[in-house]
Amino acid sequence: MGYSDSISLKPETLLGLQTSYRFNSAFSATVQGIVRTQRSADQDLINWAYVSYQPGDNLLLKVGRLQTPFFALSDVLDVGYAYPWISAPQQIYKSWLFPTYHGVDLTWGHASDNVDASLETYLGRYSGTHDTNFGTTEYDVKVFGGVIAHLDIDDLTLRISHHHGQVNLNKAELNQLHAALENGGYTKTAEALEQKHWIDLEEVAITYETIDYFLRAEWSMINPRQGYLIKDIHSYYLSAGYSIHPLTFYATFAQSRVKYQSYANEVPISDSELYQAVSALKSRTQDNLTTWTFGTRWDAHPQIALKAEVTLLDGKPGETAFFDSIQNDFSRNANLYKISLEWVF
Using one digit for the tens of pLDDT, what is the confidence trace for 156-180? Predict the structure, then answer.
């Protein structure tokens, strides 16, 4: 999920295979699987498995296990060959949001000589885990959906999206704390720690790309209506690149700002056990981070790209800043060096 303050020579190899079968001119089925050398417990081997119905050129319906269309690169995030960086900017693309869901997706599109436009809407559900102040916590997204508008005008691409869903956390310690607060008469604090709430995600992305250079920018805001346990996150990146075929040189600035909503602690110090439990919960981790990334891509073959990049990490002392493990004397400032080979076939 994040960085560590150490040198690692472990490869992060990824192998993806996708196959499709067309039943007739309108119906088809698609399955995609991904194998990773460093796969986490909640990452499935099969990430896409859906049936498509396309009655004409303008309408596409998909049902099954689908890629969640939160961000501009969501569909190709596992295909590093499709974008210039080795890793997409972590401030946006490494959030706790789930990459896939079970549901339905409907897209309407229209194309002309210079303009392509589409409107996409989806609805589904998901169950998984999320790291909170009480450790790994199960959560269930009973229902969520979104609307994505996409516009291509010559070399310019604009994407605007809104996503909305209901999240139910399921942590035994939180349930016990909530019950103890209610029994003690601390109703406002208990209400603040309800594990069922709504979350909104807003996103805007813009890209201008020619044969010689590209400009990319993306901004997102994750706004949990109950922001005491889940972070309110504002993130963005700005990226520019210049190509001298077969080389591309690029620079990226990215930043994330994290905050939690405050809530009252009605529990008096005299109720020491309950007071300490609520106080510990309010000591929440922060992932504020600013980065500069400089890199080079070499398209050695129409299907092979070699990449090398360095990322300057600038976090704040006392915060997690996307690091997984932190030593007491670590300043949260570090340099990250990476090389990769991207191959599509």
Answer: 999 999 999 988 877 777 778 888 8
- Whether 119 is covered by a domain: the verdict is yes
User: Are 132 and 171 spatial neighbours (Cβ–Cβ below 8 Å)?
Assistant: yes
| Domain harbouring 119, CATH code | 2.40.160.10
CA–CA dist 56, 107 (Å, integer)? 12
pTM, entire model: 0.86
> Does the residue 7 lie in any domain?
no
Burial class (CB in 10 A: 0-12, 13-18, 19+), 125: middle
Q: Is the pLDDT of residue 87 over 50?
A: yes
List all residues 6 or more positions away from 222 whose beta carbon is below 8 Å from its beta carbon.
95, 97, 199, 200, 201, 231, 232, 233
Could you tell me the two tokens for 204?
A: 């805007």
Distance CA 204, CA 214 (A): 17
Task: Give phi and psi for 327, each to the nearest 5.
Answer: -80, 155
Residue among 165, 131, 150 nearest 284 (CA): 131
> Measured between alpha carbons, how far is 298 from 243 in angstroms, rounded to an integer?
10
Cis peptide bond N-terminal to 246, omega within 30: yes
Asked if residue 328 is part of any domain, the answer here is yes
Q: Nearest CA to 319 among 257, 253, 230?
A: 257
Domain count across the chain:
1
Q: Do residues 230 and 259 make contact, with C-beta atoms less than 8 angstroms apart?
A: no
**8 occurs within a structural domain:** no
To the nearest 10 degrees (0 to 180), the angle between helices 272-282 and 172-183 is 130
- What are the angstrom distances between the C-alpha of 124 and each of 98, 118, 224, 341? 12, 20, 18, 35
Q: Which residues form the domain of 339? A: 14-343
C-alpha 109/C-alpha 176 separation (Å) is 50
Nearest Cα to 84, choosing from 208, 241, 310, 237? 241
- Split at pLDDT 50, 70, 90, the class of 321 is low
What confidence tier does 307 reach under pLDDT thresholds 50, 70, 90?
A: very high
